[in-house]
Amino acid sequence: MKYIVLLGILISFSGTNLAAQSTKDSLKPKMKMVKEVIYSVENGILKNRDDLFGSKLTAYIIYDKNEEPIEYVQYKTDGSIYEKTTYERNEKGDAQKGMEKNASGEIISYWIYKCDSNENLIEVKTYDAENNLTEIQSNKNDENGNIIEIQLKSPESEKGWRYVYKYNSDNKKIEELRYTPDGSLKDRRMYLYDKNGNENTVIKYYPDGDSVKKVCEYDTWNNLIIESLFDNHGKVSRQTSFEYVYDHYGNWITKIRSADGELNMVYERQIEYFE
Description:
With about 280 residues, this protein is mainly β. Helices cover about 0% and strands about 55% of the residues. The chain has a single domain (about 10-275), classed as Beta Barrel (Porin). It has an 18-stranded antiparallel β-barrel. The longest helix has 4 residues, at about 10-15. The chain is globular and about 55 Å long. This is Sugar-binding protein.
């Protein structure tokens, strides 16, 4: 089953910092819960990770036994809850409904997923707290289950943002066209992959002829270690690098980010596994 969901809140299909860049393996235990603390580095000094998880979390995510997220909570910088997102899933782990609540437990919005007979996601409808339909995502799929077109619009409009995708013989996305609601092309993106299937090059072309390129390198665990951005003249405009510390299952528990050679951000994760 393949999913592409454009709504930012739908982390069950789009992924989050907590879920990203973790190695899934059928021989490994499934992740049950992940707590994350993110902090900015001051004067190049790292904090003691053992002191972080007992106080102010950035977020946590709870998984079911299929390692699919069922609860995601984000915190404010003062340690209080910002918002909570939960998911209802069927026995296969496919999401049926998602709901977002504020710190007081009041519903902000919820969304309903619809799949076809092949279990491909074909529609996501989002509603507000008063049950008013606010947004509709409609998907078209090819015979391999790849999403080849997405339209995202409000219920009052016949037009909306449109995204068109092409794939190679390995079902990897190789081209993406983004159209604005008036039908004009916003940009065109081309994707290349390394021998392990990691996305290592993305080139974005604009209608005015300008372009930007992103080139990525990965470690042996297929986690991103260098991301270089190039401007229209082929000059590096920004380079971000990452260092990792892994647990004995091969999932990262510390990620250190540097921008243009300067250490600036640390992500710490505490992972609990199903027995």
